[in-house]
Amino acid sequence: xxxxxxxxxxxxxxxxxxxxxxxxxxxxxxxxxxxxxxxxxxxxxxxxxxxxxxxxxxxxxxxxxxxxxxxxxxxxxxxxxxxxxxxxxxxxxxxxxxxxxxxxxxxxxxxxxxxxxxxxxxxxxxxxxxxxxxxxxxxxxxxxxxxxxxxxxx
Length: 154
Description:
Layout: E1 3-5, E2 17-20, E3 24-25, H1 28-38, H2 43-46, H3 48-51, H4 63-68, H5 70-77, E4 79-81, E5 84-97, E6 106-120, E7 123-134, E8 142-152
Parallel strand pairs: 1-4
Antiparallel strand pairs: 2-6, 3-6, 5-8, 6-7, 7-8
């Protein structure tokens, strides 16, 4: 569950893990829908028979699919500010895809707050360290420094 805090208390969370999301199971149906949405139908993602012949032993999720879960992860593991009117993706400083996510595995996210800046009164730029873990694996699927903007009413 997302933690709601006052903007006055943001600095209390800098350098700390803010939350961990629940597990999300990655299904072939989700992978196929992502392939359709992005026009990326590489066999590693959508052809279980051919993908079974690779070192992965089956289909894998697109790296960008794993990355796209950050929004859902942040709803559970991030911070919300009191009087928030909207949150926006602002970009990334760094993304690394470290390990493929095989079909029918579970992933979850960990979020830590690296830093924040109040760009204008009521507009906060957050720099998050995010890791998408794969259940039962030592190495995460990805790590990223994700930038988000939160706007609050004054």
